[in-house]
Design a protein that fits this description.
Elements lengths: L1 E3 L2 E3 L14 H10 L3 E8 L5 E8 L5 H18 L4 E5 L2 H10 L7 H11 L4 E4 L22 E7 L3 E8 L2 E9 L8 H16 L7 E6 L2 E3 L2 E4 L11 H5 L1 H7 L6 E5 H13 L4 E6 L3 E6 L41 H7 L13 H13 L3 H21 L7 E5 L5 H18 L1 H6 L1 E3 L3 H6 L1 H6 L5
Parallel strand pairs: 5-6, 7-10, 10-13, 14-16, 16-17
Antiparallel strand pairs: 1-2, 3-4, 3-5, 7-8, 8-9, 11-12, 14-15
Helix pairs in contact: 1-11, 2-3, 5-7, 9-10, 10-11, 11-12
């Protein structure tokens, strides 16, 4: 039995290379068993959309645990759902402290800045009465699965761009071209590359009925508000970036365009290949990229940026150098996690290597049977099992789809097998419900670009 902030919780299976790990979901489950004072949190985002979560705190001697729980709950809500205004009801004193944390000068200043970029509004955390607490207003969207007509599917990756010409759901042409968006300052470069891809695909079909775009980042009304592809573009040219896909589509003609996060498109591809929904897709690569479709194959309109959502409460948890926070998903479900665990596994990595090259070294050792390297991927599987307790509290999950470069080779198989083992031993209710899997051949055939092509409705 372990104890964190006065809350006792049990974890039988710990990551073999991380003995300090405090899984947020497991701890939260035990914390809530003794929580009797009602609290509510609402997060407002674009177009008046509001997500509401009803919960409770313990009070009394558990003041530190109460603050930690509510702050982490809000943090997870902001990075899973998105939003620029947080309403807190039932704990005014805690709300006041959290408002200070999420101010431009607070510990969560990064979150404040991200919200400003995404919504072009200041992030607010306000305490409200029951009478002033807003009602939920959700609006899942059917963004894809349309196969009729002549469509362009464009997948804008960080190192290569892929495009497909798709007629009635079948790819008649596809290409993959190396490009350098993350190191280029002039958005005209990005624009010209995108237009070239569109025109190449268009030349393979008698007409173009629709264009679907899949890329990492956060989009509002088809505009890239926060996207790493444009990280080098000067801020004064932000408007060119926001309109880049609509301007590129106009070069093809007056056709419907939809731009979606590639995590959501991955989950959509899973739905298209199986016909089953409630899919959470996690891509473990440079960072953690997440997408989700519900039972009907619709997206929730959430940002799903779980790379910055908390998963580990340990005081010794690794700090994310970008957000400044500790114990967030990108340090557990990406190549950063492999690199983080390497010293404990007895693996010394050349500091001159890039993160991707360091990952390849560890994967090579794992494929050769190196015990420490195998323990790294086993540890990620344990992280994943306990984190599923947390994710399933926010998402209805029937399939957990795991992909990305970290899952290549024997390491991917170990992640899946260890996750399923721990689920069966400690979380049997999830083991019975959730299918944890790598992409199957049918999903690979559907592909990201073809799924992107299905986004617009004619």
């Amino acid at each position: 039995m372990s104890n964190y902030l006065g809350i006792e919780y049990s974890v039988e299976n710990m990551p073999v290379l991380d003995g300090d790990y405090v899984p947020f979901g497991v701890w939260m489950r035990e914390y809530l068993k003794g929580a009797t004072h009602p609290v509510k949190v609402a997060v407002e985002r674009e177009d008046g959309l509001i997500s509401v979560r009803e919960s409770a705190i313990r009070g009394g001697e558990f003041a530190e645990a109460d603050l930690r729980y509510v702050e982490r709950l809000i943090k997870f809500s902001l990075w899973s759902i998105g939003g620029f205004k947080v309403y807190v009801c039932g704990c005014d004193d805690i709300a006041e402290k959290i408002a200070a944390m999420y101010s431009p000068q607070g510990a969560r200043a990064f979150d404040h800045g991200f919200v400003d970029d995404l919504y072009e509004k200041d992030l607010e955390v306000v305490a409200v009465s029951e009478a002033d607490f807003p009602a939920a207003n959700e609006a899942p969207k059917a963004i894809g699965g349309h196969t009729e007509g002549c469509r362009i599917g464009f997948d804008a990756g960080g190192s290569d761009r892929k495009v497909s010409a798709v007629i009635d759901g079948e790819s008649v042409y596809s290409e993959e071209v190396v490009w350098f968006p993350k190191v280029t300052e002039d958005p005209a470069y990005h624009f010209n590359e995108i237009v070239t891809a569109f025109k190449t695909a268009a030349s393979k079909m008698p007409r173009v009925d629709a264009i679907g775009v899949s890329s990492a980042g956060d989009y509002v009304n088809n505009q890239p508000m926060v996207a790493s592809l444009f990280i080098k573009v000067p801020r004064e040219r932000r408007e060119e970036v926001k309109s880049i896909y609509t301007r590129a589509a106009a070069e093809i003609g007056d056709v419907p365009l939809v731009v979606a996060n590639d995590g959501d498109v991955t989950a959509l591809a899973g739905f298209m290949s199986t016909g089953k929904g409630n899919i959470l897709g996690i891509a473990m690569g440079t960072s953690e990229a997440v997408g989700y479709v519900n039972a009907e194959g619709n997206v929730l309109g959430w940002i799903n940026e779980l790379a910055f959502a908390p998963v580990d409460l340990a005081p010794t948890a690794m700090q994310d150098e970008w957000s400044g926070d500790f114990g967030v998903g990108c340090k557990y479900f990406s190549q950063d996690c492999v690199i983080k665990l390497a010293p404990a596994a007895g693996i010394e990595l050349d500091p001159e290597l890039s993160p991707a090259e360091k990952l390849k070294v560890v994967q090579g050792l794992a494929n050769e049977g190196h015990a420490g390297a195998l323990d790294i991927f086993r540890s990620i599987g344990v992280y994943l099992a306990h984190t599923l307790v947390l994710y399933s509290a926010f998402y209805e999950i029937d399939t957990l789809l795991i992909l990305g470069r970290v899952t290549s080779g024997v390491g991917g198989d170990l992640i899946i097998s260890e996750c399923n083992r721990v689920l069966g031993e400690e979380h049997p209710e999830l083991a019975a419900k959730v299918n944890v899997t790598l992409p199957d051949e049918m999903m690979r055939r559907v592909g990201q670009s073809v799924a992107a092509a299905s986004l617009p409705e004619l």
